[in-house]
Write a structure and sequence with these properties.
- The chain has two domains: 16-47 and 116-374, Bira Bifunctional Protein, Domain 2 (BirA Bifunctional Protein, domain 2), CATH 3.30.930.10; 388-475, Anticodon-binding domain (Rossmann fold, 3-Layer(aba) Sandwich), CATH 3.40.50.
- It is elongated, with a radius of gyration of 29 Å.
- Helix 1 (16-35) runs antiparallel to helix 7 (177-192) and helix 1 crosses helix 14.
- Helix 15 links the parallel strand 12 and strand 13 (415-417).
- It is built from 18 helices and 16 strands.
- The chain has 476 residues and is α+β, with helices and mostly antiparallel strands.
- Strands 1-5-6-11-10-9-7-8 form an eight-stranded mixed beta sheet. A five-stranded mixed beta sheet has the order 13-12-14-15-16.
- Its EC number is 6.1.1.21.
- Residues 1-419 form the Aminoacyl-transfer RNA synthetases class-II family profile domain.
- Keywords: Aminoacyl-tRNA synthetase, ATP-binding, Cytoplasm, Ligase, Nucleotide-binding, Protein biosynthesis.
């Protein structure tokens, strides 16, 4: 007996209603991207493995889906693969049971049979695109990209192994006005979606580096920031304990104490950081950059979003060099970040193009969908169904109906003809199950009078109208 069909863990099917809602979000984001001057590009779903590996840190590398070579690869004598002496020794169920030598052999082997990988994000492929097409691009280059990415992550609420990213990046400009515009872009998109009260958190990599320098822990920047990032989860004592375990001294913790009571307005926090980082040139530069962004955003104003300085924000430290962004949903919804990004001064340098600064942000489509669903913010007009169905009474009646359908579709009205001449009751049941709000009856009487009977399937009301009346009713 065949097993019940299913989808791989961490992936999903989408119903017509779900797809319509997702397209509503994507179209809202896309229209605002273009309003801000961003141009669309697309890149392949998979890249050469060496394009992706080593770009996301050790943890990121573990989450990259590798693609096994296929076709005649194993039968091609030119593909001289040296197989391990004992493949069985490498076929284990748990990575924990692989010793170091086995892991080295396994990596060598998989490296030869897996030369490609599904893209992990859109940023590194974008960097590759810029370098590869640098002679055809006009800089500064403002691009947006809305495509799926894949991560071998542990699926949980709002996190999947296959999901869409919606990115906007500017490359070829070091101007902080780009950061100001990206804050405005976040505000504009979420306001357009009706999602008011999101918090756009901002920090700066230079500030984190400056703090580590001031406390004498520059060599432990990652350990320091990873622990600090957990402040809201494990509290002050938990963070201090983890820092000490990582080799950060008690004396250093005394110097960093102000961070544990980091409150006030954006300006208040800037003042506190200026005092804390007075001895760090790098740190002060980060403070000045944040102040520039904050001052200009304040002068221009935001519609519904809140800009907040979060000194614990430490995402993307492997490639972010300046501003770091993360967007939190309104406090009425429990959800992880729904957007993020930052400034990368030399991301294209990994592909040989030096000193090409960029900055970008991303929108988390799946999490935004969940938030809009929980807050019931999707417009009622979003539907994957037709506005009306024409009842089929036979071929001559169907032709009369189809002539009207053709004209209505030219007016961008979604209508359809029931394909089969079956009992009328069955056709009405079909309309009910599809949540189609209107039925159009076009029988002998209607044809003779060149009219249509329009029935509201919600209220039961039925009226006789000519074509213009039919069009007006369905456009309403």
């Amino acid at each position: 007996m065949a097993s019940k069909p299913s989808v791989p863990k961490g992936t999903r099917d989408f119903s017509p209603a779900e797809v319509s809602k997702r397209q509503y979000i994507i179209q809202t984001i896309k229209s605002n991207f273009e309003k801000f001057g961003f141009q669309p590009i697309e890149t392949p779903s998979f890249e050469n493995s060496d394009t992706l590996m080593g770009k996301y840190g050790e943890e990121g590398d573990r989450l990259i889906f590798k693609i096994l070579n296929s076709g005649n690869f194993f039968y091609d004598k030119r593909a001289k693969i040296e197989l391990p002496e004992s493949i069985e020794a490498l076929q284990v169920n748990s990575a924990e049971t692989i010793d170091l030598n086995q892991r080295i052999e396994l990596n060598k082997f998989t490296g030869k049979i897996s030369e490609k990988a599904l893209r992990y994000d859109l940023t590194v492929p974008f960097a590759r695109y810029v370098v590869q097409h640098q002679n055809d691009i006009v800089f500064p280059f403002k691009r947006y990209q809305i495509q799926p990415v894949w991560r071998a992550d542990n699926p949980q609420n709002g996190r999947y192994r296959e999901f869409y990213q919606c990115d906007a990046d500017v490359v070829g400009s070091k101007s902080l006005w780009q950061e100001v515009e990206l804050v405005q872009l976040y505000d504009t998109v979420f306001t357009s979606l009706g999602l008011e009260g999101v918090t756009i958190k901002i920090n700066n990599r230079k500030i984190l580096s400056g703090i580590a320098e001031v406390i004498g822990a520059s060599d432990k920047l990652i350990d320091f920031t990873v622990a600090l990032d957990k402040l809201d989860k494990i509290g002050e004592d938990g963070v201090k304990k983890e820092m000490i375990e990582k080799g950060i001294s008690e004396e250093a913790l005394v110097k960093v104490q102000p961070l544990f009571s980091f409150t006030g307005t954006f300006a208040d926090k800037i003042a506190q950081l200026s005092e804390l980082l007075i001895s760090s040139e790098e740190g002060i530069k980060g403070v000045e950059e944040l102040k520039f962004i904050c001052d200009n955003v304040a002068a221009l104003g935001l519609s519904t979003a809140i800009l907040d300085l979060d000194v614990t924000l430490a995402r993307g430290l492997n490639y972010y060099t300046g501003a770091i962004f993360e967007v939190a949903a309104p406090k009425t919804v429990t959800m992880g970040s729904i957007g993020g990004g930052g400034r990368y001064d030399d991301l294209t340098g990994i592909f040989g193009l030096k000193d090409m600064s960029g900055v970008g942000i991303s929108f988390g489509l799946d999490r935004i969908y969940l938030v809009l669903e929980k807050l019931e913010l999707f417009p009622e007009t979003i539907a994957a169904t037709s506005k009306a169905i024409f009842i089929n009474y036979g071929n001559s009646e169907a032709l009369y109906a189809s002539q009207a359908i053709q004209k209505l579709r030219k007016e961008n009205i979604k209508v359809e003809l029931y394909p089969d001449n079956v009992k009328v009751g069955k056709q009405f049941q079909y309309a009910d199950k599809r949540f189609i709000p209107f039925a159009v009856i076009a029988g002998d009487q209607e044809i003779a009078s060149n009219t249509y009977s329009l029935k509201n399937l919600v209220t039961g009301e039925q009226v006789s109208v000519d074509f213009e009346g039919l069009k007006a009713a369905l456009l309403a």
